[in-house]
Amino acid sequence: MQEPVVITRAAYLASAVRKDQYPEERRPAVAFIGRSNVGKSSLINSLTRIRQLARVSSKPGKTQTINFYEMLLRVDGGEERYPVHLVDLPGYGYAKAARDRRKTWAKFIEEYFLSAEELRFVCLLLDIRHTPMESDRRMFSWLVAHDIPVLVVATKADKIGKNERRAQIAAMQRALGVSELTILPYASPKNEGRLELLDVMKDYLIE
Which of 3, 33, 78, 116 is the most interior residue, by most CB within 10 Å? Predict the structure, then answer.
């Protein structure tokens, strides 16, 4: 069966901590953000099917720059390749990072969100095993307040059973204050949720 969206190429492009370091080529972009150790790198590698594209670390706070990746998407079996950017943002909420380091991360993350005209939507990653923390709620509310489309992705869905999964998603919806909010469960080891996420990317990134 032909997948509706196929990533034909994915490669690291650039790292940045300032606007003048962003890639010169502006492409429709999706950004990924979440608390440290939420499974962001594993999800990116699962999505692109390139094992070491995003570096996975057992140590929280490893991503300290905005990392840009370029992907080529083929849609509905067509021949055209659509170039898009995937943007990996530093994890927030890492308590062991120095306060000035956390402020620096927050500053350039906010700068990216507010200045990147090519940004189409944000994937906010939350660990499905835990109720969203205050920092998660603040991030969600900030994105909504700034009219930035956000998809909540519940990572590590393979760690719990299906009944518990439904209960945790309901708890997330209550914590974020939106009972009808769509939350996408994702299990990186099984690529579960991958096709659904690609479908959302198609809707937002392909013009």
Answer: 33
Angstrom distance (rounded) from CA 196 to CA 14:
27
pLDDT, tens only, 123-137: 999 999 999 999 999
Number of domains the chain contains: 1
Nearest Cα neighbor of 172 from 157, 162, 183, 188 is 183
Q: Distance from CA of residue 127 to its chain's centroid?
A: 12
Q: Which two tokens stand for residue 184?
A: 């996408």
Q: What is the CATH number of the domain that holds 158?
A: 3.40.50.300
Q: Please give the torsion angle defined by the CA atoms of residues 99, 104, 106 and 111, in that order, rounded to the nearest 10 degrees.
A: 170
Please state the pTM of the whole predicted model: 0.91
Q: How far is CA 50 from CA 43, 53, 56, 168, 198, in A?
A: 10, 6, 12, 29, 15
